[in-house]
Design goal:
Length: 257
Amino acid sequence: MTIQFNIGNQPWEAPLDSGHDLSLAIATDGPLAWYVDPPKISPVMTDRFTGSVAKGGAVNFFNLAFNPHGNGTHTECLGHITAEKQSVNQHFREWFLPARVVTVEPVTLTSDRSEWIRSGDRVITPEQLALVMGADPLETLIIRTLPNTDQKLDRNYSNTNPPYFLPESMDWLNKFGIRHLLVDLPSVDREEDGGQLEAHHRFWKVPDEPQLDKTITELVYIEDAITDGIYLLNLQVAAVENDASPSRPVIYPAQKR
């Protein structure tokens, strides 16, 4: 099956039998971030019910305990940083989106820029983004960072100071019209920044012009076989009423008709 869509006035198409799943599962051996524990998956056990076939029950009936921000791929809305509760399940309603996949190698800062943007940090700059964006009018950007090793499949990012976006990089993405950002990092902000989360704030324009319809998806994995270019993204977000929810982004290679 092939789906047809437009980018601007240009018709494109994508075969739906050749998708690439970018999600990292919520699993006991999956990636971790923000000092959370691995997910806990255990059967319901009471004096009247055994929720495990292996233990003699009729069905498997397991509880899952996890944190969407720290266990696996997730999509979040501006409720991640607002006092008012907001749900990504309510605000994200598009699902199929033309998207651009780009590859960026974070640069290492050679001097301190502020109290929290420090020498030795690896960052993504506006100049790097300007070089990879292309000319097509796309509102969804998927960023693969280098090095792109399979350690991303099960890495514990806690206390490692992973790469992050300079705050002004988010200003640039906003000027370019990016509404949905997907990254293979645990956060667009520095791991320790005194609670500022400036990149998040600038992307969602909180508090001055809150952007309810914009999302950030973190902890994706884009294998090397996936080339940079234009894709059709199917972003499925679990129906959970929370600022962030587990998600499964699947991309389909697109070409002009």
